[in-house]
Amino acid sequence: YPSLAIELVLTDAYLDLIEERVDVAIRLGSLQDSSYIAKLIKPIQFIICASPDYIEKYGIPTKPEEASKHNCLIFPRAGHNNNWLFKDENQEIYEIQIQGQCTITNSTAIKQCAVLGMGLALLPDWLVNNDIKGGILERLYDDYSVTATDYNSGIYVLYPSKKYTPLKTRLFIEHLQKNIQSE
């Protein structure tokens, strides 16, 4: 669609789509209640990881409660404590309060800090898989499913509730669903 123009706004802030005249928003994580139409594009799987240097210096945590004794790279989430959730094979959930010297509002920056050996990071698998394969980061807690908020995190597309959704919006959403789900 060569005549389709895109204005890309990158922000972690929750914008009022109608007030800001935004046709479509892509949100990662859990959704807040809203009047927008939301479609799950793909669930997000999280990984706790650290650099080999950090692990060599501070050791490998293996039990959920051991994360609280490490320097964790914190992504602040509105309405949530600094807790990480660990679910074991029996579906038992352990909620562990973490602490750390760095609070960062950007996942890519958290990844860079983890690469530099600054602490444990809880990040989406798609952001760190290549670094783990390349030995730049090491995956921790293989026996647990982990997250920071709940187990409904995903990549969502949101758009204002309208009786008529423009063709360009519908086509863009279909494109996202087709291409992101296949990765």
- The Cα radius of gyration reads 18 Å
User: What low-confidence regions span 5 or more consecutive residues with pLDDT below 50?
Assistant: none
- Supply the helix-strand structural class: alpha+beta
State the name of the first-level CATH class of the largest domain.
Alpha Beta
Count helical runs.
4
Largest sheet features: 5 strands, mixed
Q: What is the share of helical residues?
A: 10-25%
> Architecture of the largest domain in CATH?
3-Layer(aba) Sandwich
CATH homologous superfamily designation of the largest domain: Periplasmic binding protein-like II
Q: Element order, helices and strands?
A: EEEHEEEEHEHEEEH
Summary keywords:
183 residues, D-Maltodextrin-Binding Protein, domain 2, 29% strand
Fold and architecture overview:
This protein folds into two domains: 1-44 and 153-183, D-Maltodextrin-Binding Protein, domain 2 (3-Layer(aba) Sandwich); 46-147, Periplasmic binding protein-like II (D-Maltodextrin-Binding Protein, domain 2, 3-Layer(aba) Sandwich), CATH 3.40.190. 22% of the residues lie in helices and 29% in strands. It has helices spanning 52-58, 107-115, 125-133, 167-181; strands at residues 25-29, 37-43, 46-50, 71-74, 83-87, 93-97, 99-103, 120-124, 138-140, 145-147, 154-159. Strand 5 (83-87) and strand 6 (93-97) form a beta hairpin. The mean pLDDT is 88.
